[in-house]
């Protein structure tokens, strides 16, 4: 498709929007806290921490690690950046996550710009091109997704890049087809190596090539590109697990053949239709769904249609469903939305009602962006509180009861019943110990505290200090900023996210300690009186 010419004035205006969008995305990355789904943490960050610092045992790792079924490329990237931070003396888990989010933001911005430059002629007018950039950079759900270092979002960016490069390659001179093929093969191979479920999209892509774009030199170039990407994935898997293994086959065996993924819940086939509305917003979800269906119907021979239809269809068939499985398709949203809007009579967008609608939508979008960065996940506030509590002091022992979920561990029920630890954010001087009963926890806490150790108890009981025979003092923390708690905390609703995630400091009387002192939390650690 030949792009329509863009004059110098429009090029300057477009460049300013791109610059603002890139800066906004990078700022969103710096301000974002936490992860969307625990897999983002346990399948990347915990793996990277294990390779960075080692461990006396891997028993605390989730079952996927022992089954060797998760790709090693993203943990390797996180490990490499962690090594750089360690070498520079700047390492903290928060710094590493910020760096990974900046990397994701940069990749997402670059891919969006590549897609824009590929399809800007198809968009038609300068107004539509501006809307493409506005929705791609500033729509709250796109801004949120752009900055997360997850397999779904990494693969989504690579699928968009693959589609854009494919459209560009169709205008390539014959003598350059081999090089284009190598680039396409490399991107396709990396997409699969990052997220195996993207193989369904790649299968549709391959069929589209065989039907609509049969070029031998292009195919010949794709072979070394795919092989190079798969070899990189294989080496990353060896680095992660310490032995040669075919991780995609392990994934197929565990999650599909053995149906372990269904142990996390099975949903009906219409789940994605309802969940898109409830989680993405009824208006946003409805518009995105309508635009996607419209694109598939009106562009049945388009490469994006052939990539996404099998990808989405297979996920409808699988029993275990989560909205994040569809995130790779969401990166095409700006393209779908602008083309969908172009199908309507343009007089609809010229009236006062449309301007009021855009203004209200922009205000709601701004509120959603502010809420996303202002709150984040409660986990991050907890980890920062524990970092401050442990900073500059002696060793700290954290105790919990097996099965009592907390932000440092949870009870795994798949394949093997055991506690899985989240050690990535854990301070270096903190040790986590699991006990089998409240009575054992109390005995262990008294023994450790009597020996001079600093001891904290992790519990889901918000009233444990009143019930336990241990002398406990609750460490206060809350994930919401002070201005929210002060002005918008109606009926004390901000207590709900943390009421079952409590930390108590054990404070034995002086007579029970060997040095005759009572240790308290360091100043500013969040201890409640």
From TrEMBL:
Subcellular location: Endomembrane system; Endoplasmic reticulum membrane
Broad class of where this protein is predominantly found: membrane
Pfam assignment, any one: Glyco_transf_22
Lipid bilayer topology: Multi-pass membrane protein
Keyword Ubl conjugation among UniProt keywords: no
Database matches in InterPro entries: GPI_mannosylTrfase
UniProt GO cellular component terms: endomembrane system
Residue ranges of the TM segments: 17-36, 94-119, 131-164, 184-211, 218-241, 269-296, 303-319, 325-344, 356-374
Record key words, sorted: Endoplasmic reticulum, Glycosyltransferase, Membrane, Transferase, Transmembrane, Transmembrane helix
Single GO molecular function: mannosyltransferase activity
Signal sequence extent: none
Protein known as: Alg9-like mannosyltransferase family protein
Source organism (scientific name): Alistipes dispar
